[in-house]
Amino acid sequence: MNQENQKKAQERVQELSTLLRKYEYEYYMLDNPSVDDFTYDTLMHELADLEQQFPELLSPQSPTQRVGGSASNAFQKVSHSVQMQSLQDVFDLEQVSSFVARCQEMFPDAAFSVEPKIDGLSVSLEYHDGRFVLGSTRGDGFTGEDVTANLRTIRTIPLVLENALPLLEVRGEVYMPREQFYALVREQEENGEQVFKNPRNAAAGSLRQKYSNITAKRKLDIFIFNLQRCDGKIFEYHDEVLNFLEKSGFHVIPGRSICHTAEEVITSIRNIGDSRQGLAYDIDGVVVKINDLEQRELMGGTSKTPKWAVAYKFPPEEKETTLRDIEVNVGRTGALTPVAVFDTITLAGTSVSRAVLHNQDFITEKNICIGDQIIVRKAGDIIPEVLKSISHSENAVPYQLPGYCPVCGAKAVRDSDESVLRCPNRACPAQMHRQFVHFASRDAMNIDGMGTAVVAALLDSKLVQSVSDLYKLTKEQLMTLEGFQEKSAENLLQAIEVSKKMPLDKVIFALGFRNIGQKAAKLLCEHFGSLEKIMTAPKEEISAIDGFGEVMAENLYTALHETSTQALLADLKAVGLSMQYEKKQVASGHFFTAKTVVLTGTLSGMKRSEAKQRIEAVGGKVSGSVSKKTDYVVAGEAAGSKLTKAQNLGISVLSESEFLEKLK
């Protein structure tokens, strides 16, 4: 009887799996579902129940495995059987024409596939006998990371192929659709989380989640654009490959065309560029590659890039709009920052209505007046900037920053060595709010639960006037504030208490001295070892620290000798914050000891901040720029000008896998 039940269950599981894959294909690939959501969900629940009753029937290819689940402590390394190369970037159409000419000089009959370049994260998908068995990131091209569990959650990746081959490996680009990106950013803002800068970063961060069910909620998508290897079928042309993959159930790169002349290629590039804003996803260029696979083999490539393809990168998009107003914001150091407010325009797929104007010199140089027609672009498709004013309205008057703080009314001052106007009033409400937020931030004192709304409530209620007052708050005081209950008050007080254990460099960074960031604060503490020694040091000794300069030293020296600063530091010491710095024991004799390293590109195995910490932990130094003093450059994915400069200077370049090996 049990065997009979199991046989029936097995047959039903196979039937349900086939049906659900069919419905997924209709919904996600054809956008033409044949059943409603209720029917689909009912069948999915039935399959999940059967798999729970008969665990031996659960397959990694089951539709139920799309939702993700268990945590991964680390992503295993994957060696790519076929190198996942990057493409040579070109930035003008003449370079595209030259590429076509070079190819047709070697092969007069060469044709080209012209395809949108999806702005996402490159991955490899491997199938054995038609079943998805391995998915990995590009990494350094030779070694990536196993992200199979997370890739299974992407609905447009088939888990079982219609046209099964013994072996098939394809390459694709994982991306986050714009609407999903906007929804995610709104959610992150509401939760007080750090938001992703753009859809590409969001896709990369979502694919490398520890929990695959989080990846599933992010609703990533993928386009397949290349065949890496296969057994059981021979192809002659790239477009033949893509047509086969599309029929096999893959989400293949759309908007592609086959061109035979440079003129046709350029026309296709322009057509793709014109359609860019109407797409549901971001593209940052167009890929042009030889269509004939044998011609590709004969052309070959360098160690990094193929010679048979180039990526034309779109120039930053520019648009005209009307400048309606200029607002002046006050930063935590008192800097008055003008912000242009203009009629909303769409740039690189996002709505833009504001851009920083930096300072008065910037405004004067570009002759900006309120009411002007201005040209705005997104630098790097991320940060909006005003390029220029192209016309003035009638009776236009050149804009001048106010000579006073717009928040507290204090007379603004301008340092002789800067082009920034500042509010000198340390008690300015705008400065105080930003100072408290900075003090409590993750990179500073890391006081969990103390966001902008809580800071505003504390300041408005006069419960705090100095950051040292945070350490004197009581539960009863906090419970007088709107939104605070006994538990939330206790949680905040506990977080404040924990922050007392933060090291001295975090305390100095948290106090927000001008020009003193995390790195400078650490250098100070490494050199002097205690706050007392820092405060009694002559400014000449401070400026002599490698990484400091005269302006930084002067600003810090002046700030430390102000009566208000000395009183604040005394208060912080009295409430229990550490004023001594414990230097970490640094290993000696390591590969990176006493070496200067520059990191460039994206590392798949760790965040850049982690790589920096690990280099410093073994006695190395991480620099932001390449020079003759640089010992090694670590080149991750999409390494840019720093890699080129290192090669020109003859500096040793390490791939990510080589870097990780040296770190051991």
Describe this structure in words.
The structure is a single chain. The protein has 664 residues and is of the alpha+beta class. The chain has five domains: 2-67, Helix hairpin bin (Helix Hairpins, Orthogonal Bundle); 88-313, DNA ligase/mRNA capping enzyme (D-amino Acid Aminotransferase, Chain A, domain 1, 2-Layer Sandwich), CATH 3.30.470.30; 318-421, Beta Barrel (OB fold (Dihydrolipoamide Acetyltransferase, E2P)), CATH 2.40.50.140; 429-574, 5' to 3' exonuclease, C-terminal subdomain (DNA polymerase, domain 1); 596-663, BRCT domain (Rossmann fold, 3-Layer(aba) Sandwich), CATH 3.40.50. It contains 24 helices and 22 strands. The strands form six sheets. A five-stranded mixed β-sheet has the order 2-11-10-3-9. A five-stranded antiparallel β-sheet has the order 14-13-12-15-16, with no helix packed on it. It has a four-stranded antiparallel β-sheet with strand order 5-4-7-8. Strand 21 (632-635), helix 23 and strand 22 (652-655) form a beta-alpha-beta unit. Helix 1 (2-29) packs antiparallel against helix 2 (37-53), helix 3 (93-106) packs antiparallel against helix 9 (262-275) and helix 16 (504-510) crosses helix 17. The longest helix is centred in the N-terminal third of the chain and has 28 residues, at 2-29. It starts with a helix and ends with a helix.
